[in-house]
Amino acid sequence: MTVQQVLLLLLLWMWLPHPCHTEMLFRRTPDVRPKSFGGRTSGNDGKAIHRQKRGWMWNQFFLLEEYTGSDYQYVGKLHSDQDKGDGSLKYILSGDGAGTLFIIDEKTGDIHATRRIDREEKAFYTLRAQAINRRTLRPVEPESEFVIKIHDINDNEPTFPEEIYTASVPEMSVVGTSVVQVTATDADDPSYGNSARVIYSILQGQPYFSVEPETGIIRTALPNMNRENREQYQVVIQAKDMGGQMGGLSGTTTVNITLTDVNDNPPRFPQSTIHLRIPESSPVGTAIGSVKATDADTGKNAEVEYRIIDGDGTDMFDIVTKKDTQEGIITVRKPLDYETRRLYTLKVEAENTHVDPRFYYLGPFKDTTIVKISVDDVDEPPVFSRSSYLFEVHEDIELGTIIGTVMARDPDSASSPIRFSLDRHTDLDRIFNIHSGNGSIYTSKPLDREISQWHNLSVIAAEINNPKDTTRVPVYVRILDVNDNAPQFAVFYDTFVCENARAGQLIQTISAVDKDDPLGGQKFFFSLAAVNPNFTVQDNEDNTARILTRRNGFSRHEISTYLLPVVISDNDYPIQSSTGTLTIRVCACDSRGNMQSCNAEALLLPAGLSTGALVRSLPIYNIVSYNDEGGGEEDTQAFDIGTLRNPAAIEDKKLRRDIIPETFFVPRRTPSAPDNTDVRDFINQRLKEHDTDPSAPPYDSLATYAYEGNDSIAESLSSLESGTTEGDQNYDYLREWGPRFNKLAEMYGGGESDKDTS
């Protein structure tokens, strides 16, 4: 704050009513009561009590902000008409800042401010005053509320929210065009004097711009300001309070103004005539050269479009506009021939694509130039009869079959013979070959559409007299489909059937895929390889089929897995088919068919379980592969599962018939287990022996050992306890299940007991 400003503030303060002489008196008011009020009331002693209203009248205290004196600033005085001046009354102050910012002399009622106060922090303070009898501490006046209002002084300069503003306005704008509005704020009290009244003025940027004093709107002040002459302007705006009068405080901000472009300049060619040259051998589409018209504008206002509007080569050449460089690229439209024509003349026009109607008077917004193109003579390479070739051939053709022929000639008068070759980079597998003399392309390896449906070759033609003078042509070979692939399952199916399944219940929906692509689309048929007593397949005639059960109830303890061969055929010629095998697990399910468990649990056996009965009780799984050439379920060459029925047979080592063992091992003799051996201990012992015995058969079999535990309330769930019964189990029912169970019927229906007699 300058010295002049301080002096001005002091003068203003002297002319204002001085708040330091304010006195607030506690005066008795006449006992005026509404007519509805009783005049007197009786106390406990029966004496009349006169109702009195409070004896002081309140006005606001006023206090000037930013007091700089060394003593406490005097605010005002509280006085009650009950005060006789004998010190019997005590004045008490409470409320905003009482005791800290404001203190009161309890004897005289004088109020002082203890520190400098800023109105911009708080404009008024609400306090409460009370006068009490010092001896009895009883109030002599009711507590009343009053306000200390802080008077403002001009101690805050206007401020802009931004130090630097950025704005823009189109060039060539008329005088008075609004650019941007800047607004300054003043923290002083706008309701008191002119401390917060702001006036705007321009300190820098004239004569190009002006500012409205009251609003801060910056406007253009000169007509036809041209961006091409000057683009950037810096304007400094001042905001001054006190209505802009002398002594007011001020703040400034900077506004960077950019003139944006308008299309007020037409394009211009720097030359009236342009010369270009091109060899006659240039293929169609070759770029000859470029022309460019300059435009002083920028962005879309400088965009031009080029066209050929006249000349003797309008049908021989094209011109395209390159957007990123705003050039006109002249290209070859038709093949050139030096012997036919050696010089062409074109008239090229460049025109703005975005013309502003306001500036038509500055046009026209286009220009022209003359382009002369000279054709140079060259030794021309061979010319193919086509720009590309397409050959179609079926994938099952024999080796050496000609799939098509390319032709080329020497356009020169010498008419040199032509030699053809294949670019081996386009035929790395050497599937094709070409006759060098006549251009016939033939196969050298079998074709397979499922491996590659298209072959993109490049054939080279060269003059025999000048082998370096070559021409290439693309040859596209499309391989046509024949039905040489059989359909297969679309995915791997993890199929299960519930033990409580009913006949006719859906357990799986299957679909198929085929690598072939027949013209009429894929059509598959599903059937079983042979009649199955447990399951059947129902073709949905939409390339899917349903697997259904044929009987009620399954037992995972008897048979935990079924293998179901399904034959899938297509509808093309020749018909292709394959057999896919579904592995169907038997699982325990809840009443709604949700799978719960698919493991075959072992049951608790009597203490006298024999070794033979135990071996017979363990589930043995033989994995049999099915295909079109296999023997199906009748193929038991994997190994003889009959050897597992008797422990003695296990000890008698037999070699596998499906593979040749690399090493012959001496069969290991294992001691017989006592009759009272616990099942768990027996299983653990046998597992340990097999883990360490490399000769333990069978090599490709999976033996599952499950143990139910002791004292199951379900008791025995299978025929394992038959080992302790007097009679043998009857397995004759296996013969009723069809030919697939004949082998099991032979193994278990012989009548001999498998019980261990040791």
Automatic annotation (TrEMBL):
Q: Which residues form the signal peptide?
A: 1-22
- PROSITE patterns found in the cross-reference section: CADHERIN_1, CADHERIN_2, MHD
Locate the Cadherin domain: which residues? 80-160, 161-269, 270-384, 385-489, 489-603
One cellular component term (GO) for this entry is: catenin complex
Tagged with keyword Signal? yes
Q: Which GO terms describe its biological process?
A: adherens junction organization; calcium-dependent cell-cell adhesion via plasma membrane cell adhesion molecules; cell migration; cell morphogenesis; cell-cell adhesion mediated by cadherin; cell-cell junction assembly; homophilic cell adhesion via plasma membrane adhesion molecules; synaptic membrane adhesion
Question: Keyword Ligase, does the record have it?
Answer: no
Tell me the GO molecular function terms: beta-catenin binding; cadherin binding; calcium ion binding
InterPro entries for the chain: Cadherin, Cadherin-like_dom, Cadherin-like_sf, Cadherin_CS, Cadherin_Y-type_LIR, Catenin-bd_sf, MHD
Bilayer topology term:
Single-pass type I membrane protein
Domain (MHD) spans: 57-318
UniProt keywords (A-Z) are: Calcium, Cell adhesion, Cell membrane, Cleavage on pair of basic residues, Glycoprotein, Membrane, Metal-binding, Repeat, Signal, Transmembrane, Transmembrane helix
- Cellular localisation: Cell membrane
In terms of one coarse class, where is the protein primarily found?
A: membrane
Q: What does this protein do?
A: Cadherins are calcium-dependent cell adhesion proteins. They preferentially interact with themselves in a homophilic manner in connecting cells; cadherins may thus contribute to the sorting of heterogeneous cell types.
Please give the name of this protein. Answer: Cadherin-10
- This protein's species is Strix occidentalis caurina (northern spotted owl)
